[in-house]
Amino acid sequence: MYFIDVQGTLISDEDKSPIRGSIEFIDMLNKKKIPYMIITNNTKKASLDFYNFLLSRGFNFDFYRYLDPLMLLESRVQKDSVAAYGAAEFLEVLKKMGYMLNYENPKTVLIAIKDDFSADEYAQMIDFILSGASLVGMHETSIYAKNNRRYPGVGAILKMLQFATSCSYDVVGKPSISFYTEALAAIQKQQKDAKFSDIVIISDDVKGDLGGAKELGMKTVFVTSGKYKSAEEIVPFLKEELRPDAVYADMQEILETL
Questions:
Q1: Residue-by-residue DSSP string for 21-87
Q2: What does each C-alpha distance from 7 to 56, 80, 217, 228 come to in angstroms?
Q3: Residues 37/63, Cβ–Cβ less than 8 Å
Q4: Could you tell me which of 68, 59, 67, 33 has the C-alpha nearest to residue 251?
Q5: pTM
Q6: Alpha-carbon span 87 to 77, nearest angstrom
Q7: Angle subtended at Cα 111 by Cα 48 and Cα 59, rounded to the nearest 5 degrees
Q8: C-alpha 78: how far from chain center
């Protein structure tokens, strides 16, 4: 059974094209009737829109095998009085979901990803948090890759704000326990006795996705087709207990091994 990341694992960070072997890997799971979930930290498109985008790229899987943070957001963050930060597409999705954006006295500071956060935005976040607003991340990605460059991910920004304000924070998407528990519940509809220890999770985010998954007992597979150019960039610096169980170049290499 598998949990499979999307960005940098199934599709390229650069042009969103399918990564080598990714379509074939999903087709293999379908053919062999192996339970799996596509789990992504997508926040820039409505869930059904991003699912349909993946179908348009050649992937073949049903919507019940798909999970992203937007699908859990309404149960985690109230819609009134949110100061949201992220790409313009994310803010538009929130508005369509009925969230009321408030940059004067918000109850919640909600952070997604973008590559051009400003010092003034960080200052505003800090003021809101110190005034009592709760801090929530759409996910806890370690770094964010775009245009062949790497930026601090939402997880890195959350850690910075935590250090600056001594606040705690909550996470909606990966690698939160609640997100993985929701994904497990979905996979149990495919195989009712499934447990975290039965799951192999594949991702290019060895810290933001795989570390939390390993703490829950999942087997972790790191692919270097996304955020990191090689395992040597990051794996030697991880705690021994959080290092991935296997490392592959991409989904094609996993498929050939299987």
A1: THHHHHHHHHHHT--EEEE----SS-HHHHHHHHHHTT----GGGEE-THHHHHHHS-SSSEEEES-
A2: 15, 30, 23, 12
A3: no
A4: 59
A5: 0.94
A6: 19
A7: 30
A8: 21
End-to-end CA distance of the chain: 13
User: Which residues are within 8 A (CB) of 148 and not within 5 positions of it... i.e. 6 or more apart?
Assistant: 14
> pLDDT (tens digit, 9 = 90+) per residue, 84-129?
999 999 999 999 999 999 999 999 999 999 989 999 999 999 999 9
Quote the Cα angle for 181-214-198, to 5°: 65
Could you give the CA distance from residue 150 to residue 177 in angstroms, rounded to a whole number? 26
Q: How confident is the model at residue 148 (pLDDT cuts 50, 70, 90)?
A: confident
For residue 129, the SS3 value is helix
pLDDT, tens digit (0-9, with 9 covering 90-100), for 170-196: 999 999 999 999 999 999 999 999 999
116, amino acid identity: D
CA distance 135 to 185: 26
Query: What's residue 213's pLDDT?
Result: 96
For every residue of 85-98, DSSP letters joined together read ES-HHHHHHHHHTT
pLDDT score recorded for residue 37? 98
Q: What is the mean pLDDT of the chain?
A: 96
For Cα atoms 49, 54, 56, give the angle at the middle one, nearest 5 degrees: 90
